[in-house]
Amino acid sequence: MICMLGGCLILLLLAGCRDNAPVSARVLPAAPTPPPTRTPVRLLVAPSPTITPTLAPTTTPTATPVPATVLPPAPFTTTRLNRGVQPVAYETDVCRYLERRWNPAGSTPGTILVPIMYHGVGARANRGNGDTWTPASYFRRTMALAQDLGFETVTSAQAAAFLYENAAIPARSLLLIVDDRRIGTVEQQFLPVLTRNHWTVTLGWIIANTAQHRGLWERVERLDASGLIDVQSHGLRHLYITGSTPERLIREELFDPIPILSQHFGQRPIVFIWPGAISRRERLPSPRRQAIASVSLPIPAGHSCTTGFPWAKKSAASTLLCWCCPVIGPIPA
């Protein structure tokens, strides 16, 4: 029952409160609907990657190389020259010297050219002082030795090209020269050797009075046609040029033989074989102006080329050029 009374009491109390309210009830306005809340959009930006520097070892500083000074080529030296004889270098341009020395199309360093000049060769030679002829037996031994040593002959044109341009020639080259228009020496002594070895000989030809010797031009022309001889100039009159020789005679001796030899042999001479020793170099006209490529000098009086090869001279390619005369002047430029 208490529960029930209690329940009634609750109801009565509620009823009493409602009866005491005013007749006209006040209606409160509805609360405004709040705007929807905007959820802020967050832009998700990927963070920039952190660049981690790559560590590299520090380069060890090095000294800047200093180009070494290029020394000029050492001059040619040898212990095989006669006392008092000095080698002479005639190519002063070091760059040109080196280019010609190492040009694969030229002669290799160590190439030698040995000129041997004979005044005459015969059975009755060397009979006393002043005899410039060579005994035939000695000549044959010299030629046999040259062949055994592997020498090959070259023409004057080949020798001149070697001297000026280091043109290719055999490693052991021999330039044989017969002086003073001695065609008999060539026919009797040289031809057998030349034919057997396929060699050549340079014949120094004097123009004076050749036409007065019947058939002499024809004989030398026949030899020239064989391909075994190389005719070069030995002067117009075989004039020994001294300090008192007039300039006119010097020029005649050098240049007047050129058209005559060209007429008989079909080509210009390129070598002038000097009559006697040079004693007036400062007054000589340049042979090059008249298409003469080089000058060969004969043995001075009192010397014989059969005594060996005492003269040596360095060529443009640091090769060795051996002359058979102990006194020789520079080749005129």
Task: Kindly list the characteristics that best describe this protein.
TIM Barrel; elongated; 13% strand; seven-stranded mixed beta sheet; 28% helix
Report on the structure:
- This protein has 333 residues and is α/β, with parallel strands linked by helices.
- It has a domain of 230 residues: Glycoside hydrolase/deacetylase (TIM Barrel, Alpha-Beta Barrel).
- The protein contains eight helices and eleven strands.
- Strands 1, 4, 5, 6, 7, 10 and 11 form a seven-stranded mixed β-sheet that branches.
Q: What is the β-strand count?
A: 11
Which class of the domain at 94-323 in CATH terms? Alpha Beta
CATH fold descriptor of the domain at 94-323 = TIM Barrel
What does the radius of gyration come to?
Answer: 54 Å
Q: What is the CATH superfamily classification of the domain at 94-323?
A: Glycoside hydrolase/deacetylase
- The low-confidence parts are 1-25, 278-283, 287-333
Gap from first CA to last CA: 162 Å
Strand content: 5-15%
The portion of residues assigned to helices is 25-40%
Q: Looking at the structure, what is the overall shape?
A: elongated
Q: Count of DSSP helices?
A: 8
Report mean pLDDT, rounded to a whole number: 73
CATH architecture of the domain at 94-323: Alpha-Beta Barrel
What is the helix/strand order? HHEEEHEHEHEHEHHEEEE
Largest sheet composition: 7 strands, mixed
